[in-house]
Amino acid sequence: MIIQRFVLTAFQQNTRIIACDETRQAICIDPGEQSNELESFIRDSGLTLQAVALTHGHLDHIGGTSALHEAFPNAEIIIHQDDEDMYYSLPAQPMMLGIGPDQLRALGMEYADPPAVTRNWEHGEIYEVGRLKFSVRHCPGHTRGHVVLAEESERNVFVGDCLFSGSIGRTDLPGGNYEQLIDSINSQILSLGDDFTVYSGHGPETTVRRERTANPFLIGTYRLGKGKYL
Ligand SMILES: [Fe+2]
After folding, report:
1. What is the pLDDT of residue 223?
2. Which one, of 172, 171, 204, 175, lies nearest residue 185 by Cα?
């Protein structure tokens, strides 16, 4: 599996190209903004971009969709249905985060309407990229329609903003829900197995084992469904 990371946007978001090294089929997970370097990597590596694969609809994960769609118009654009409204609200998202009109240009956040979504993720589907098989897991909590993509043969999971090295995604934005996020992380990510490598939307890579045993939000006595802090 080819995994190439590009750190983009003022929010230092991890945009990734993931490709099958045999068939050269590729997806871009969460294009944060337009990047010549990213587009050149796809072309120079002889990859066929089959999809813009979005984990969720926040601006720092979708802001580069328009540019990538223009450069590679055959790539489908996939997001969970529950984040479609957020996706289409891209031009208004900076304001929702308290970013004023006078700051938009400096931050590269003067967004036009994004291109139409061509398909929605379905929880439980297997999405094939050449010989890679990603299981699509709905993980609400950071946003309503967040998904993670788990590739079982090479034990990699791409988790967007659900889980970070030593932290978890924020839940104070529209659609966020703390208990739902903890439940999603436990049931859809930690359950994959300790040997999975975790690729987050911000910051360094980690492993399920490290987060299960050392992440302060996930260890201790807090257990959903059993009451708080038993
Ligand atoms: Fe996010």
Report:
1. 55
2. 171
Among candidate residues 173, 221, 147, the one with its CA nearest the CA of residue 59: 173
Q: Is the pLDDT of residue 224 over 90?
A: no
What is the rounded CA–CA span in Å between residue 145 and residue 184? 12
Alpha carbon distance 183, 139 (integer Å): 9
pLDDT at residue 229 greater than cutoff 50: no
* Ligand 1 center–CA 161 separation, angstroms: 5
- Residue whose token pair is 């043969």: 153
Residue 153 main-chain phi, psi, to 5 deg:
-65, -35
Q: How many A from CA of 124 to the centre of ligand 1?
A: 22
Say how many C-beta atoms besides its own lie within 10 A of residue 101's C-beta: 9
What pLDDT is stored for residue 20 in this prediction? 98
For 2, phi then psi, to 5°, come to: -90, 130
The environment of the single-atom ion ligand 1, i.e. residues with CB closer than 5 A, is 58, 161
The partner residues of 151 in beta bridges, in order of sequence, read 134, 156
